[in-house]
Structures are given as C-alpha cells and as structure tokens.
Amino acid sequence: MSKLLLLEDDPALAKSLIKYLSRHGYTLDWVRDGEEALTFSYEHRYSLYLFDINVPRLSGLDLLKALRDGEDRTPTIIISALVDVGSITQGFIAGADDYLKKPFDPEELLIRIKAKTSTLKEQLTYHDYTLDLTTQELFLRGEPLYLSEVQKSLFVALLRHHPNPVPKATLLDLLEKPTDLALRVNIAKLKKHLTLTIKNIRGVGYQII
User: What are phi and psi of 167, to 5 degrees?
Assistant: First the structure.
C-alpha cells in the first residue's frame, strides 16, 4: 500500500481527499503547515507528496525546495488555486513532478498519483519507445535499446515526467559532472541518437514533445 503525505490547510478538502484516496488503496498523513510537513518527511518514508502552496509557516514551494536541496527526490504533485503561468513555472522550478489546479476532480488526481507511483501500469510508452518500470529496461519497437548510463538516466527521467517538463536540477543530478554545458551536450546527443524532439523550457527544464 502506498503512503502519501498531504500538505493542505483546508480541512474539508483534506478530509475528502483522505476518504477518496483511502478507498483506492492509499494511506495518507495529513499536515496543515509546511514546518509540520518537513518534520513528517524526516520521520517517515512516502511514495509521493501532495503539497498545496499557500499554507502557514512554510510555503509548499519553499518546503519542496528544501527537500530537493536535501536530496529528497520523492515524487511531488503541487495542488494549488494559483493557476497563472508564473506560479506553475515556479512549481516546476522548485522540483515538482506535476501541477494540478484547484478545483479539480479527485479522479484526475488519482490518475496522476497512479502515474507517479507506477501503479497505473507496468510500462511507459512514448511513440515506439517503451520503458519497463519494473526492470528499468528500454525498448525500441520491442527490441532492447542500449544507451550510455547518463543518456539512459536522462531519457528515463523525460519519459517518467512526460508530458510535463523535467526540472533542470533533476537532470543535472543525473550527470557525473553536473554543468549546464554537459547537460546541453548530453541532451543534444540523446536527440540525435533517438531522433527525439526535446524542448528546452526556459527557466524550468526539458521535456519530450
């Protein structure tokens, strides 16, 4: 059973999400402010974080930045009423894996949670490429695809985040010598090797389209 950490200061929404998600096999720890969420993240292991942004004491964005700076790569979905492009961009810059705008259908949230916790399916498919989520093996039209470890890690990250961009900081962490130039070179090699369209989202990161 997957365990989630929910940061939400609206009791009515939090309780409805706990009730709905528990019916689908998830357990949740619910906290109302960012400082409490930070403490819970230290004391427990979670499959995924659900963070609102505008919460007391420590915002969801500042919390997420602190966690990413501390090498916590737990998949994170931002759920927020802030729907402007700037806020969404800041969410991905902070290290979010997905961003869901309030109000939302709980079923849509469930689909996104399943996608991020790999319980929706055992494979990810993008055009002719397939990633086996169990073995982390890559295939092209059913045949094994061999890449260098760095390029494989980058491609897997792009697949897992698709259709959302992968934060630049996440991709840099996958490099042996993390520099902007090294990242651009490896992305260029990956595009050439796989004939992929990989877009640079300025100020955020990269995504396959």
Answer: -55, 140
Q: CA-CA distance, 173 to 72, in Å (whole number)?
A: 12
Write out pLDDT tens, residues 3-31.
899 999 999 999 999 999 988 888 899 99
Q: Against a cut of 0.85, is the pTM above it?
A: no
Q: Do both 96 and 161 map to the same domain?
A: no
Per DSSP bridges, beta strands 129-132 and 138-140 are antiparallel
Answer yes or no: do 132 and 110 share one domain.
Answer: no
Using alpha carbons, select from 140, 120, 124, 143 the residue that is nearest to residue 132.
124
Rounded CA-CA distance 125/191 in Å is: 17
CATH of the domain at 174: 1.10.10.10
Contacts (Cβ under 8 Å, ≥6 apart) of 164: 92, 97, 98, 99, 207
Q: Which two tokens stand for residue 169?
A: 């900081």
